[in-house]
Design goal:
Elements: H1 2-17, E1 20-24, E2 35-39, H2 44-54, E3 60-65, H3 72-80, E4 84-86, H4 98-111, E5 115-118, H5 136-147, E6 155-163, E7 172-177, E8 181-182, H6 187-192, H7 194-210, H8 222-238, H9 248-266, H10 268-287, H11 300-329, H12 331-335, H13 342-369, H14 374-399, H15 404-409, H16 412-440
Parallel strand pairs: 1-7, 2-5, 2-6, 3-4, 3-5
Antiparallel strand pairs: 6-7, 6-8
Helix pairs in contact: 1-2, 4-5, 5-7, 8-9, 8-10, 9-10, 10-16, 11-13, 11-14, 13-14
Length: 443
Amino acid sequence: MRRSLLKPIARLVLWIFFRRIEIKGCERIETGHPLIFIANHPNVLLDVMLLGVFAPADSLRFIGKSTLFKNPLYAWFLIRLGVIPVARVQDERTSKMGNRDMLRLASRTLQDGHALALFPEGLSHAAPVVRDLKSGTSRIALRTEAEDEGRLGIRIIPVGLMYTDPGLFRSDVDIHFGEAIEVKSFLSAYREKRSAAEQALTEQMHERLVSLTRHITDPDLEEVIRDLTAIYTDRIAEDLPESAEFTNRLRAEQELIKAVHHFSATDPDLVQTFAARLRAHHRKLRRLRLDPPTVSPKNPSFYAIHLLLAVLCAPLALYGFLHNALPYYLPRLFVKPYRKNREMIGTVKLSIGMVLFPVTYLMWTGITSLYLGVPGTLLYAFSLPFSGLFVLVYHERIIRKLPLWQSIVLRKYRSHLKRLADERALLIRDLDAVKARYRLSGQ
């Protein structure tokens, strides 16, 4: 019941936090069997919420690290949500005796026909790579299936979580539910040699997760791939046919990663040249606080319409900004200690924001109630969350669509935009030539 009550709230929070959530492969999952959902873990709390809301399972229990249970209040909350604690090797001063209870509870959950969810990398990290998986998932699945002589039909469902930026508010996220792995197909090997079967199943899980998200094996290439993705992913995605299994963005980024790895091995000078050009281009964009799409040439009427909309909607946007600025900007102060841990940034922002927004609304409503009657106070309180949503729409649909003040009000920026647009067009032209060369190589 607690999970049923929290699920719509979590769905609403995710709808506000993310600009776009795209889900692929969910409809292929057969729900008549015990399921184990495994996912990469680039964002601590948001990963849990996304799985909890969108995984097709009526009763989903998470397995979480035992260190989360050190705080009594937090432990009380997690236990009542059905989270099963597991002691990891890297956790200091943590008793391993509880892992026997973890195995027992996990097995019972599956035997009752319910679902488990866990992150087999063993830790959260924002690096675009699927690290080696721990064998705990295989151990739970094979042990439980073997105890029931293969009649349970446990399926392991790999889930790829891919954020445009794991710490950015109003970013995008793709959720890919991959092809199920039938655990009973490993049972004969498990009866002969348990460790070998567990390793084989773990390797297959890793392969499936790699196919569902970004996987950059050379960390030295992360920056150039990130810069390439910002300006060239859409170009590649245009040439790809629609797929029921994968988003075009995932397929385009995976093609980019393969191509960069290929040229890094065959023509490293080419990669270094483009890396320098892309780095310089993005440095100029950051200096002017521009996104890559905003440097594309626009029709003059486009500027005029958006400027008119910006002016007409400004009073409502100002109302929303004044009432929502405090809970929106204050979480940034709490993020500073986690700048080097990008996987924590989104979690900290969301956690602090979920407290600050309702508290701020109550504060404003309390102050207003001193001057307005009951009907006026209720109307005012009702307007607060909607005013915040309006500011988001105003910023994303009008202000971010073009650099209004740089391109129209301040004439000197128009020449900068023109040079950046020409520079971007030249980069794309040269990248098109490299893409043609890559395809001729048979890759």
